[in-house]
Write a structure and sequence with these properties.
By secondary structure, the chain is mainly beta. The chain has two helices and 34 strands. It has a 16-stranded mixed β-sheet that branches. Strands 3, 7, 8, 9, 10, 11, 16, 21, 24 and 25 form a ten-stranded antiparallel β-sheet that branches. Strands 27-28-31-30 form a four-stranded antiparallel β-sheet, with no helix packed on it. A hairpin with a 2-residue loop joins strand 14 and strand 15 (228-239). The two termini are 18 Å apart.
Amino acid sequence: MTKLDRRAMIAASGAALLLPRPLFAQARAEAFSWDMVVGKAQRLARSPFKVTPFFPGADKIGYDAFNQARFRDDRTIWNDLGGDTGIRLFPLSGTVQQPVTIALVEKGRATPLRYDPDMFDAPADNPVRALGPDAGFAGFRIMNAARDGDWLSFLGATYFRAPAEKQFGLSARAVALNTSIAGKEEFPRFTHFWLERTGKSSVTVYALLDSASITGAMRFVSSLDRGGVHQDVDAVLFTRRSIAELGLMPMTSMFWYDQADRRTRTDWRPEIHDSDMLSIASGDGTVHCRPLVNPSSPRVDVFAERNPKGFGLLQRDRDFDHYQDDGVFYERRPSLWATARKPLGAGQIRLYAFPTDSEYTDNVAAYWTPAAAVRAGSRIEASYRLDWTTARAPASAGLATVENIWLGKSEPDGERLLIDFSGVPDKTQPDIWVDLAGATLVKKAGYPVLHQKGLFRVVLDIRRDRGKAADIRAQLRAGNRPFSEYVHYPLGA
């Protein structure tokens, strides 16, 4: 996974007024259906890949110029219909130089949108103004009813993301190709979008994706409610050539450091991360918890699964005091949970991370990789649900959950790992199960933390083999019954 500059992904918001929809029409409406998008993807896979040209002048639009070019409030699409479905468009920039085609769908007919430089308010010397009338768009976002924030954004490659409490964080992708294979990652891009308003707070997004190795049709049935943003996703993919690592339901986030990873900290804030843990709900009922770390070198963790119920990158720590960031509020960042709507079969959930020394680089990715080889000419289908929310993962219901991880030294030459579990009933003394690879367990203990209701602390003194990295697995149990999440922690990664 290459570096992604997160600052360039979302522009500022504003209030909206009214504009008649016909002003956006460019051409006569054409018949539209989901089957049509699938057919386009299938036909595209039978022809050689063609790179969409970079639009002249887009490379001159930097971060500041991009954010200064604000989509005019009075040009908001569907504004006259009210609700949480106002559409605003992104101009091209140095980050996204290849235009996408966007059309509106109504009653089975699709009408393309016409690019108009006057859609954007920008200073006279802003290079967005010099793009000309045929520039096209970089992407779009869907505004809430108050028009003071967006709840879904598609911008660049096949990236999209949704906020929680008006704070954006991690991103999702349509597909990930060879993400953990050094120098081999490929980034398909959306080339066409079709947007259909389906309710006061719901929009269905259809998309066509293309790359050297794969084409695809995507359908995102997206809605907003008090619990967050929800998307039922259908993907039909066609391969031009074999793919070594296909990632489905991929999500991408940033983890710089937390309270356990002080060695990488150079900022005054106690913690900086968009997500702090990978959670997996296995088909056998086990709930795995893998706290995120900022590794010293690229690292891949593999969890073999058959028909997992779901997985997600979570931002579990919701305490402002732990971040002290009064500008971007990391404690409000969304968690993203993916649930398969059809059985996935055999495969792996993979967690890939590489080192970062800033909060502007997304350095963590999680995705599902099918066990079956992906050969040229394959048709691959997936149906799943994405929930963007601040709620804890649904998989952990009824189990004690990991609240925090702490690291320190133990005598004489070992290390101490502390795991705080929340949700442990008073006067309960669960069994502490521990397994280690690459290390020796010197001592273990566990006890309720005084004056902290439901908090149970596990203390593990560990000696790593010759200072090498080790993998620690731990769980609270009541006899043979799981009492907590199954914790995986890489010590010294």
